[in-house]
Design brief:
By secondary structure, this protein is mainly alpha-helical. Helices cover 61% and strands 5% of the residues. The chain is built from eight helices and two strands. The two termini are 31 Å apart.
């Protein structure tokens, strides 16, 4: 392992000043130099991945490929409405409202309302009366939105399979297992607002 004023990560990039400040904490926690280096590399890659997600690079690239004429935020809204309807990542399915859309996307309700109005104009969602409370308006994806999501998933998996094309099946299985374990740990120690973090 190269050492020139500090460890280098597997990409042969010198550690940043902030990473150098973290090293003593990792060593104090009992991690070997190799494990500490791996953790810092993982943290850096995770940051870049989350940054791409937040910028909407993946959906925007696919929206461009599909010539959908949508920005990433608009696609995220359609996806959020479908998640709410199906209960994906939520306690249970619910009728999507502007309020729930704002909550799911971490947006101000007024911003969520403007996005919803734009999607209505584009024919991708409609407003309907709630089955639970006829006075409440809910957001319903149209057939065009369902078709768009189907095309998005097909294009996404076509690219994703290329990512893993040269991976051994055993590596894919191990990666899925380890990533699930990592994700569960993140849920426990970085819980949603209002819930306590797990005891160490």
């Amino acid at each position: 392992m190269a050492q020139s004023g500090g460890m280098e990560n597997p990409r042969n990039q010198p550690l940043t000043a902030l990473q150098e400040r973290v090293l003593p904490h990792l060593r104090q926690a009992g991690y070997s130099p190799e494990a500490a280096e791996a953790l810092l590399s993982l943290d850096a890659e995770h940051f870049l991945y989350v940054r791409r997600v937040m910028k909407g690079d993946v959906p925007q690239s696919l929206m461009d490929e599909l010539d959908a004429g949508l920005e990433a935020t608009q696609f995220h809204a359609i996806s959020a409405i479908m998640r709410i309807r199906n209960g994906y990542g939520r306690p249970a399915p619910e009728e999507p409202t502007v309020g729930l859309l704002a909550e799911e996307m971490c947006l101000d309700p007024s911003r969520a309302s403007r996005i919803a109005a734009d999607l209505v104009e584009r024919g991708l969602i409609t407003r309907a009366a709630s089955q639970c409370d006829g006075r409440r308006s809910i957001l319903v994806p149209t057939e065009a939105a369902q078709n768009l999501m189907g095309a998005f998933l097909a294009a996404k998996w076509k690219r994703t399979l290329k990512v893993f094309a040269d991976w051994e099946e055993a590596d894919i299985i191990a990666f899925a297992r380890l990533f699930s374990r990592y994700s569960e740990g993140m849920r426990q120690h970085y819980p949603v607002r209002g819930k306590p973090a797990a005891e160490s």
